[in-house]
Zinc metalloprotease (Cellulophaga baltica 18), 438 residues
Amino acid sequence: MGVVTQILTFILIISILVILHELGHFLPAKYFKVKVEKFYLFFDVKFSLFKKKIGDTEYGIGWLPLGGYVKMAGMIDESMDTEQMEKEPQPWEFRSKPAWQRLIIMLGGVTVNFFLAWIIYTMLIVTNGDSYIPADNLKYGILVDSIGEGIGLKTGDKILSIDGVKSKKFTDATLDILLGDEITVERDGQKVTFPVPDEGIKQVLSTQGKNFLRYRQKSLIDSVVPNSIAAKAGIVSGDQIISINNTPSEYWNDFTTAIRSSKGKSIALAVNRDDRIENLNLVVPEEGIIGVYLNADDLIVTDEYSFLAAIPAGFNETINVLTKQIKQFKIIFKPKTEAYKSVKGPIGIVEMMPPQWNWMFFWNFMAMFSVWLAFVNLLPIPALDGGHVMFLLYEMISGRAPSEKTLERGQIIGFVIIMGLMAVIFGNDIWNIIKRFF
């Protein structure tokens, strides 16, 4: 059922976003009295799964789940139906309307996507508040693995800023670092600034090492499993691990590393219990687990918002997500990072869906993906909304419309670009699946 849930979650999110995006074109087109010939969820290449004509418009569902479209009379679009364009313009056609009306129609889809994300983020903030770990509240600094060290970070560093901007949330630090140019940290009482290396970004992306950055915690025991090795050795809740075999082990990562490297061996523990040192002994089992749980520092804070306060907070979150998506293009087009290999298509996105239904994930992903659709559709590539907007702005500035031949060629070029990108994206998905089996 897990894979089925993942697929259904993805299809539902995409369906909602596509319908609302196309509705953003459809409503202003109807308002300006443009004849809408088709309104389709997914593409109906050769045939459709469902269709019904109501008035002048055919509503339907295609079989190819790569988006959707609204076909307007008198417009050169992805259908490349130029037969109608050879006739005299009619009052109900797209091409007969003033440029400003056509511009509003073409911007309608991305406008809906942006406002949808804003509304979702606003409602999530009103309902759940904004929970995060403050970046400046890490008493013992960060914890990094070898991948983090490849970027230039060290365990114990305190991140002060990325590209000169202080991060509010530690949970944003991973992405901020990958998208940034330089990091400033406090290390051993000194302020150190260093660039983010392309090789380090490549290592994170190629190894899926997105947990390379965590925060360091003391080895304070929260609870002990009854009848476990730790319980029999005398470890109790509240103990603070001081050392293992006389080697300092005050931090949780040091403690767990020492335990895993001592499988089948006898070790001597020193713990701080009620401000006195207790010496204990135990034999670490072969599985490297002794039966203790960490007492996590209570670092998470939640900012509560009223409905009115949540509106600008939701807007800021939408802009924040959009900004980071734009920055991602910077590393995608850096050959040394090989970030293009990590771009996910439909198959890869389905794998990101949770195997069990999760409403929080559903709404957060929908908001994020809605912003993504708005951004991608505004790219000035013919065949996308941004391509049509580009030609319309040229017409409004120059006072003359591009020729129909130019628009037709633009659509062909845009189609080739989009198909090329789709081939790369699907190729990545397929290659990643192949690598799992060989």
Remarks:
- Residues 62 and 184 are 51 Å apart (CA to CA).
- The domain at 218-293 is CATH 2.30.42.10 (Pdz3 Domain).
- The chain has twelve helices and 15 strands.
